[in-house]
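Can't paste images in this forum, so I'm doing it all in text. The chain is below; anyone willing to post the predicted structure tokens underneath?
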Amino acid sequence: MLKDQSSVKSSRCPRTAAFTLVELLVVLAVISLLASLLIPAFSRAREAGRASVCRSNLRQLTLALQVYAPDYRDTLPWPGGVNRNFEPDWVWGGQTLDQIALSSAWKSTNFGFHPESGSLFPYLSGQPRQHFDRRVTTPRPVYRCPSSGKLGAALRVNYSLNGWFDPGLKGVGPEGVQLSRVLRPSAKVAFVNEDPRTMRNPAFHPGGTAATGLFVLHNGKVIFSFLDGHLENFRDRQVRAAQLSPLADELFSSYR
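Text version of the structure:
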């Protein structure tokens, strides 16, 4: 007796393929593993790109120092203080640490630096130095570290000039540091890619507020520029060590 044709056809139809629960969990585990490997790599690559921009900024800033000095009787710009605003100060403005800690204060006209009023501005922008006006908040990319976040954007300047360039410190005369007298320019710090949370002024004073900073902006490092124009990466522990004697004198004292 012949089998029913419909039953024969149904018995020959292939079963629909489907993932079992175990197979689905294995696939998800593999995807999760790949993501855990790739996402940090992408993040590091993105940060490396930001660090390249930061290095370019520091090169331009340091070159501006070198060009500035011959125009001002061989003296370097002054580092500046919180709203000190002396004519040779490289950047004007400033804020307190309390303001920095309070994000609601970041939009105040009393917050942030004013690079356009500082002594280096014409050498970096090709524009005349501008009258000091607290209402001005125009971004100036060469003064900005792209890894400094919203606080860095509010500060408008994310690099600090060597604080020991100030007159009266470490044997510096009343006019400031004379570039031709600097001992071993390749060993002397010009600018520091500082932690924005410690930047109440645009000067890096070893052992000052920077002693409490966390210097990890670029994949666990920050960038120092030196008076001869070269750059070096410093890890957080190295920045801390650099603020202590005798290393601080070797790195920051112009005439030692």
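Residues 30-252 form one domain. The mean pLDDT is 91.
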